[in-house]
Amino acid sequence: MSVVTRIANARLSVDIASLGAEMQAITTADGHSWLWNGDPAWWTGRSPILFPIVGKAPDDRLTIEGKPYMTAQHGFARRSEFTLDMAGDAMCRYELMPSETTKAVYPFEFALRMTYALKGPALSVAAEVENRGARTMPFGFGFHPAFVWPLPDAAGRSLEGSPHTITLDNGAEPALVRLKDGLIDPARLPSPFKAGRLTLAAAGFEADAMIFPEGAGPGLTYAAEGGPELHFAFENLPNLALWQKPGAPYICIEPWHGMAAVRGGGNAIEDRPSTTLLPPGDTARFGFTVTFPA
Fold first, then answer.
1. Is 272 within 8 Å of 258 (Cβ atoms)?
2. Which of 113, 150, 219, 230 is 20 to 30 A away from residue 287, measured at CA?
């Protein structure tokens, strides 16, 4: 049975479940909730961890070292029970190790550690993937947190009707790609960003997620006009996706190092965009920090 660990300081509290090491709630000291609540009428996810792949494989078949494996979208970590490895007032760490279940779909010796830590109004989430085997380990990794849309104002009232924006720190206009049958369509489309700014609209997600393979940069701000701003800083996460079920009351801000397979590009894990090839004994780190309003 999944258990929930709460970490807190004077500014924030965060609940993290052992199932998937997935955040369940983020609450500021004023009582405002910022993370999507997982209402099954829209989407039961809240902040799943994507490992060892991001997105789909063709026909859910992934080829590793020439051998085919049946692999569900976004991999197995989000459905796996993690072990609480360390816990304090304002931080905790969960760990996932290989099992017969994971080896049946991903034949590697790995350790996946998820650390959640609070400092003032900032929440940092870090992932460490260790290759504990004797051969190079290919994988993708991604974060998939969903935040409330519309945001609340200072009194906790919904800012429905106010423009909500994503503004890239680098002011760029990165090219857009879309999914077709769950796979990356390689055709580059014009950027929806203008001078680094995108005004969110449900219509933008009628063709599924907005995916930016490169150029979105190391951070962004999610904000409502006349309302709060949430600033995100990314570490070793070159790909970005934004996703909503059109009309749902959330926006997923998803930094990744890895993407779905390219349509027509085959099933091999090493051929997937932005796949990490981790040498034996090495550890790769990925992370993001989100700072909430004071």
1. yes
2. 150
Query: Cα–Cα distances in Å, from 267 out to 51, 52, 260, 261?
Result: 16, 14, 10, 7
* Per-residue b or e along 147-174, where b marks 16 or more CB atoms closer than 10 Å to that residue's CB: bbbbbbeeeeeebeeeebbbbbbeebbb
Positive or negative torsion for Cα 291, 292, 293, 294: negative
pLDDT in tens, the chain (294 residues): 789 999 999 999 999 999 999 999 999 999 999 999 999 999 999 999 999 999 999 999 999 999 999 999 999 999 999 999 999 999 999 999 999 999 999 999 999 999 999 999 999 999 999 999 999 999 999 999 999 999 998 888 889 999 999 999 999 999 999 999 999 999 999 999 999 999 999 999 999 999 999 999 999 999 999 999 999 999 999 999 999 999 999 999 999 999 999 999 999 999 999 999 999 999 999 999 999 997
**Minimal CA–CA distance to 146: which of 243, 219, 286?**
243
Strands 197-199 and 229-235: unpaired
Please tell me the total count of domains within the chain.
Answer: 1
What does the block give as tokens for 277? 């090839």
CATH number for the domain harbouring residue 134:
2.70.98.10
Burial class of residue 194, CB neighbours in 10 A (0-12, 13-18, 19+): exposed
* C-alpha distances out from residue 155 to 37, 152, 224, 228, Å: 20, 7, 14, 11
CA gap 90, 10 in Å, rounded: 10
Domain residues for 129? 4-291
Phi/psi for 60 (5° steps) reads 60, 30
Contact 77, 112 (CB under 8 A): yes
CA–CA separation, 114 and 255 (whole Å): 15
